[in-house]
Specification:
Order of helices and strands: HEEEHEEEEHEHHHEHEHEEHH
Radius of gyration: 19 Å
Number of helices: 10
Structural class: alpha/beta
Shape: globular
Helix content: 25-40%
Distance between the termini: 32 Å
Bound molecules: adenosine-5'-diphosphate, magnesium ion
Number of strands: 12
Largest sheet: 6 strands, mixed
Strand order of the largest sheet: 8-9-10-3-11-12
C-alpha cells in the first residue's frame, strides 16, 4: 500500500483530510490459524462500504478488530485519523490504556446479527443505558435524544416495550438506535438482517438506508445484494482472510473479475 492517503494533519479533522477508516496490512491469528492475512481497506467519511464473502472468510473478525473486540497481530487500523489501540510517543507505538480504548470504542457503533438487547430493560432504557452510565450525561437530555432516535427508527410507540414484546425487526431497530445514542462517527453492521424472518428484513434495511442518506459512515457485512447495489459506495469481497476484489458495487456485482467472487455471487443472487 502506498502512503498516498496521509494521516490527518494536526488540527484538521481526518474526516476532511483523509478516510474515516483505513486498514493497512491487518493480520489476525487465533492460535496457529491466520484468519486475516493482510487486509487493506479504506472507507471515506459518509460512505457505505459493503463487506461480502463466504462464511469463515474473516468478515466478523475484521469488524471486531476495528472495534477493539479483537487485537490485531500486525498492521494498523485508523478511525478518523486515530490509530486504533496505540498511541505514538517518541516515535514508538505504545499500547493504549483502558480509558483511551474505551474512548475510541465509544466513537464506533456496532450492530450484531443477534440484537443483544438487555432483556430486562425497555426499548427506551436500552437506548439510554450507555449515555447515562458510560458518559454520565444529563438524564433529561439523554431521554430526549433516545426518544427522538426511537421515533426515527419507527418505534416511537414502543418506548416502554421489553425486547420480548418486540419482533426481531423491531429489536434490531432498537439495537441501531442504541448504537446511535452514543453519537458514533462510524457504524459497523455485522449481518444485521441474517437472523430475521424475511418479511422483517426490509424495515431494518430501510433504517440503514436512512442513516446512509444522512451521511453516516458505515461498514456493512451483508448478503443483501440489493442493499449493496442500491446503497453501497464500495463493495469489498473477502475470501480466506484476504480482499479478493473491490470496487463500485454495481460494477462488481454486474461484472465480477475473480472466479471466487463469481462463484459467491452466483450463490447469493
Ligand atoms: P465470517 O464472519 O466471514 O464468517 P469469522 O471472522 O467469523 O468469519 O471467522 C473467520 C475464521 O476465524 C473462522 O474460521 C472462525 O472459525 C475463526 N475464528 C473466529 N473467531 C475465533 C476465535 N475467537 N477463536 C478461534 N477461531 C476463531
Ligand atoms: Mg461473521
Amino acid at each position: 500500500m502506498t502512503q498516498a492517503s496521509v494521516p490527518a494533519q494536526a488540527g484538521v479533522p481526518a474526516s476532511e483530510s483523509g478516510p474515516m477508516v483505513r486498514a493497512e496490512q491487518v493480520h489476525k491469528s487465533f492460535g496457529s490459524i491466520e484468519v486475516l492475512k493482510g487486509i487493506d481497506l479504506e472507507v471515506r467519511a459518509g460512505e457505505v462500504c459493503c463487506l461480502l464473502g463466504p462464511s469463515g472468510s474473516g468478515k466478523s473478525t475484521f469488524l471486531r478488530c476495528i472495534n477493539h473486540l479483537e487485537k490485531i497481530n500486525a498492521g494498523r487500523i485508523w478511525v478518523d485519523g486515530d490509530l486504533i489501540g496505540y498511541r505514538e510517543r517518541g516515535g514508538k507505538l505504545h499500547e493504549m490504556r483502558e480509558k483511551e480504548v474505551a474512548a475510541q470504542r465509544q466513537a464506533i457503533g456496532m450492530v450484531f446479527q443477534r440484537f443483544n438487547l438487555f432483556p430486562h430493560k425497555t426499548a427506551l432504557e436500552n437506548v439510554t443505558e450507555a449515555p447515562l452510565l458510560v458518559r454520565r450525561e444529563k438524564r433529561a437530555e439523554v431521554r430526549d435524544r433516545a426518544v427522538a432516535l426511537l421515533e426515527r427508527v419507527g418505534l416511537g410507540d414502543k418506548l416502554g416495550n421489553y425486547p420480548s414484546q418486540l419482533s426481531g425487526g423491531q429489536q434490531q431497530r432498537v439495537a441501531i438506535a442504541r448504537a446511535l445514542a452514543m453519537q458514533p462517527k462510524l457504524m459497523l453492521f455485522d449481518e444485521p438482517t441474517s437472523a430475521l424472518d424475511p418479511e422483517l428484513v426490509g424495515e431494518v434495511l430501510d433504517v440503514m438506508k436512512d442513516l446512509a442518506r444522512d451521511g453516516m459512515t458505515m461498514i456493512v457485512v451483508t448478503h443483501e445484494i440489493g442493499f449493496a447495489r442500491e446503497v453501497g459506495d464500495s463493495l469489498v469481497f473477502m475470501d480466506g482472510g484476504v480482499v479478493v476484489e473491490q470496487g463500485n458495487p454495481r460494477e462488481v456485482i454486474a461484472n465480477p473479475q475473480h472466479d471466487r467472487t463469481k462463484a459467491f455471487l452466483a450463490k447469493v443472487l
